[in-house]
Amino acid sequence: MAYSPDLRVLVLANQKGGVGKTTTAINLGTALAAIGERVLIIDLDPQGNASTGLGIDRKNRGVSTFDVMIGEAPLKAAIQATAVPPLSIAPSTLDLLGVELEIASEKDRAYRLRNAVKAFADDQAQLPEPNRFTYVLIDCPPSLNLLTINALAASDSVVVPLQCEFFALEGLSQLLSTVEKVRQTLNAELTIHGIVLTMYDPRNNLATQVAADVRGFMGDKVYETIIPRNVRISEAPSYGKPVLLYDLKCSGSQAYLRLASEVIQRERQLRAA
């Protein structure tokens, strides 16, 4: 689903809640911005935690991704700046809970977000190169509903945050099955960009075993970088900040910077292939 050679759209997806998906969207986006990319996060989760975690107050979300999904506003109208200048966000509101009812009968219901991103990419192509976004990250709800299907249909690749816990592989196989179905029916070019292991505690034997099992199952699709369980990552959203702004030197921030470098490295390999 290539929109243009210099815009890549990655979806953060996992139907299981509490795996660090929104945290990864916020902090991977910030880390990419910190190393020179221009990043847009599309908050497609009705809970709006990515928007809150980047300091966008609920009363300041005049145009949201709900308006984009029902066709009442273009994506560019929803975009807001964050405290990190190269990072912007299209915020969400609880209105998104009703989006399925709004668009369920529409023929293009699975392509609403793709159409919006396509129009946005076309607008971007008219701008000078330094002003163009280079990455779009989509944060999904923790379920396989129409919002998640829209995100998968609109994306080039999937980044899968996976918590190092007992049921991790079971949830992963369900998600891979869904990605395959979307590839067959809605988006033939969709790929798995990588799996990022989150909330890793090296003192926990189970976490170490899960990490080994996932690497054994998925091979080099698993990023080398592992996101540790880190109290600073947990604290940062309550201050409306990504962890890189809250505490740059903590282990969590450094891990997300390494992950961003790894994502860019994989992108270079894909373009060279």
Observed structural traits:
273 residues, alpha/beta, eight-stranded mixed beta sheet, globular
Q: How many helix segments?
A: 12
The rough form would be described as globular
Q: What is the CA–CA distance across the termini?
A: 16 Å
Radius of gyration: 17 Å
Total separate domains: 1
CATH topology: Rossmann fold
SSE string, helices as H and strands as E: EHEHHHEEHHEHEHEHEHHH
Mean pLDDT: 91
> Which consecutive residue ranges, at least 5 long each, have pLDDT under 50?
none
Strand order of the largest sheet: 3-4-2-5-1-6-7-8
CATH level 1 class label: Alpha Beta
* Secondary structure category: alpha/beta
Helix content: 40-55%
Concise structural overview:
The chain has 273 residues and is an alpha/beta fold. It has helices at residues 21-34, 49-53, 65-69, 75-78, 99-103, 112-124, 146-154, 168-185, 205-218, 231-235, 243-246, 251-272, and strands at 8-12, 39-43, 80-81, 87-90, 135-139, 157-163, 191-200, 222-228.
Q: Can you characterise this structure?
A:
By secondary structure, the protein is of the alpha/beta class. It has a single domain (8-272), classed as Rossmann fold, CATH 3.40.50. The chain has helices at residues 21-34, 49-53, 65-69, 75-78, 99-103, 112-124, 146-154, 168-185, 205-218, 231-235, 243-246, 251-272; strands spanning 8-12, 39-43, 80-81, 87-90, 135-139, 157-163, 191-200, 222-228. The chain has an eight-stranded mixed beta sheet, with helices on both faces. Helix 1 (21-34) packs across helix 12 (251-272) and helix 6 packs parallel to helix 7. The radius of gyration is 17 Å and the shape is globular. The two termini are 16 Å apart. The mean pLDDT is 91.
